[in-house]
Amino acid sequence: MTIQKSIHYFKVSLEGMQLSPHTLKAYMQDLNQWQECIEAVNLEEINFEMIQDYLIELQSQDLKPASLKRKRVVLHRFLKFCYEKRLCDERLYEYIDPIKMRKTKAPKEILTTEEIEELIDYIDGQIGENEVLLGSSNHFDYLYYCWIRNRLLIGILLYTGCRATEAVSIKKQDINIQTNSILLLAKGFKYNNIPIHPQLLEFLGVYQMQLKKLENKEILSNLEASPYMFPSRQDSNKHLASRSLHDLMLKLSTVLGRHIHAHIFRHTFASYCIAAKMDITTLSSLISHSNPSITLSIYTHEIEASQKQNEIKKLNFDRR
Predict the structure, then answer these.
(1) Taking Cα atoms as reference points, which of 159, 163, 198 lies closest to residue 180?
(2) Is the model's pLDDT at 318 over the cut of 80?
(3) What is this structure's pTM?
(4) For the range 121-130, what are the long-range contacts, defined as Cβ-Cβ under 8 Å and sequence gap of 24 or more?
(5) CB count, 10 Å around CB of 83?
(6) What family is reported (predicted)?
(7) Model confidence over 147-187: pLDDT tens digits?
(8) Is the domain of 140 the same as that of 57?
């Protein structure tokens, strides 16, 4: 059996398990990298030496521990799939020793209230600059739209704690003002109904007001034709690519003078909820974790820090 065909069968199997597109893409990238590194066409040609040489090569690439572990796990899973499905006769996966990583309780990186204000102020400034130029060209019209869209995206990330893919794929029908909720398609193709925070409701209102100032028929037509809240510019039947959100984060990183990513808003949401003494079961449900124990394991440091702050206040040396 050829390696290429085996990878195809493995991909089909993963798709049947309904893995997220992001996870599936990462798996295929890891396997394609492995295939390019080994000098073999068929599974029968693979031996212990080939696999070890590849693992040694990974070690030399100065990868993050999590990335290194993932690549080994993906290869192990693929080779085990090949053996169990009789695509090869040898237990090649046994040549890959598991990596034991020490679990840390380091705090998650979050945004301060000052940084949040700084980002919103910057975006508002960009909106103001391009609003003055509305109608002068398609370029400035589109820049204006991008920044009012970006403002709402930041609001959604900040006040729902959703993932980047969940934010960009929101459909118009998913935002229900009457029931005060947003329906998110979460990880694992599960739907999660999130209450609209009063501040997020304000973000939505500002977006609608700012959108009324836009008279560019091409942009408005694309928005009207799309089922998505944030449609792709090239195809109204598709939503905004996560890459566009990534590019926005790069711009905002220069504003704060440090690297940020879309997931930092999720950590910020969760950490502030913990600081506000939100029930862990409720928080777990809000951020689409399948089990509260997952939330506890990820935010152990934040929970402990909040508890320490509350408990230390009980200390009193005054005998009076």
Answers:
(1) 198
(2) no
(3) 0.69
(4) 122/252, 122/255, 123/147, 123/150, 123/151, 123/154, 124/151, 127/151, 127/210
(5) 16
(6) Belongs to the 'phage' integrase family.
(7) 999 999 999 999 999 989 999 999 999 999 999 999 998 87
(8) no
Judged by DSSP in three states, 279 sits in coil
Q: Which structural domain range is residue 175 located in?
A: 113-263
Q: Of 263, 289, 308, which marks where a domain is finished?
A: 263
- Please identify, among 95, 125, 154, the residue that sits at the C-terminal boundary of a domain: 95
Tokens of 75: 């290869």
User: Which tokens go with 106?
Assistant: 């380091």
Q: What pLDDT shows up at residue 212?
A: 95
Q: What is the mean pLDDT of the chain?
A: 87
Q: Angle of helix 21-37 relative to helix 65-84, nearest 10 degrees? A: 80
- DSSP symbols for 214-276: ---HHHHHHHHH-SBSSB-SS-TTSBPPHHHHHHHHHHHHHHHTS---THHHHHHHHHHHHHT
Q: What's the order of all strands across the beta sheet hosting 190-195? A: 175-176, 181-186, 190-195
Portion of the chain with pLDDT greater than 90, in percent: 58
CA 249 to chain CA centroid, Å, is: 12
Looking at the fold, whether 117 and 41 belong to one and the same domain comes out as no
